[in-house]
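Give me structure tokens for this 228-residue protein.
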Amino acid sequence: MKRYYTIFFLAAFLFSCSRSVNSREFITKATGRYYFNSDETIQVYFKNEKLLINWRNKELIPTRINDSTFYVKEMNEKLVFDTINNKITLAKKREHKELTYVFEKLKEGEKTPREYLNENNYEMALAGYLKIQNKDSLDKTISSSTLRKLTRSFTRNKKYTKAINTAKINSILHPKQSMPFYFLGNAYLKNKDTINAKIAFKKALEINPENYRAQDNLETLAVTHTDN
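Here you go.
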């Protein structure tokens, strides 16, 4: 009898160990990039048949709950994989307030608008942001403040072409707001393009005559540059 129980528990242990490893089919279908939001992705990949996630430039090691569900401590979320429909769904919990969160898998070669910005591909970035706006005009990824922060980040890192492209897109998405044009003027100014800087600052003032920062920059340019 003792020998029987030993064999039974050994078999159970080996079975549980085998189930802790992801199947080859799951690995093949789950691997890829998924939209975390409209302009950000999470990447799912495997090392030694263990699922890993790259999120915001950090490698995360989820805890495997079952064949399709993984707990990510850093997100405090359970990710439920649907490899048939190429998506991840967050397991429901009270904090979601009955909302359903779904991360769709990107197609081969598909990129986010921000990735196009990083490649200096202005046309594709603009098309991507316009698509987001048409789908949901309140999406935070296309808010004027979000794009201004991105413009400021590019400018701070002396990536002036990216800053200009981002500010131009912001001014197209929010043509009635003054600040996108002010940021566009600053980006041009950092890139030593005083002519386009003046045009942008004038547009900012046209929309909001009380944009004193744009006014100050125009007055400074009038003294230091006489072109146009």
